[in-house]
Amino acid sequence: MSALRRRCGPLVVGALLLLAAAGCPDAGPPVPGAGSAAVSPTAGATTPDAPPARIVSLAPNVTETIFALGRGDRIVGATRYCDYPAEAKELPRVGDYSNPSLELVVAAEPDLVVTPAEGLTRPLIEKLEQLGIAVHVFRAKDVDTTVAAIRALGVAIGAPEEGDRVADDLEAASAEVARLAANARGAGNAPPRVLFCIDRSPLVLAGAGSLGDDLLRRCGAENVAAKLETAYPRPPLETVLTLAPDVIIDAVMVPGGDPHELAVEFWRTQAPTIPAVKSGRVYGLVPDRVVRAGPRLAGGLRELARAVHGIGE
Asked: In terms of domains, do 74 and 141 share one?
């Protein structure tokens, strides 16, 4: 089908424009198994007949993973926020993470489109499949599902051994962190109470069910924002004061400057009475290592555990 599309490129684009004219809805709820019956509920993918030579990635963590699996040279399209590794910044763009351009995706003539579960809506996936384009859904929301997603993607793009290697590293990091946390806490000691901040304007925290919540649990910490009901609560600063965390993990995307210094300065000026601030337990981490569900979570998890337990201070 891919070769046919390349011979009939103008016809495909014409068909695409007709589909777009019919209306492509805004991104909706997560798609657990979108598309035709070929979408496997276990693997979460429609698989091309052979390992894909041309791949479009529709999320930064997907792009990182494809590069980590040694197939970055096969990516022919990515979103505007796909920025790691450095080579990803040079990839052709197919729109934003939340609103990819169907026209640009098809014009890239991919054999496979890889999307996060919360990305493409069912109608958009169906339109891609109507044009003969296979879709693989990368379902990663915590460490366990990220491990499974990496392995599944490795199979889908013809790199199963590489997928196992990267997934094994993440599993090893999780086991290492569990041992570190057990040794750091000791018997009978209460877990450190931690606030995981992912944005400051507005204030956005990692709540129950979020990736950050899973990482904190693996580090043997209590997530003080878990009681705020949503996965990514946006409480007023006054609420944070009442949570009184012992440790603040600040993983906010900053356009310039040192993440740790900027984090310490923000919390020192905005909430000086919080126990974490008073005791100097505010840590600014590089956000992509702890908020993107992909290969770099292995290093990010180790870094997070050291910060949570004050190791190396």
From this structure: yes
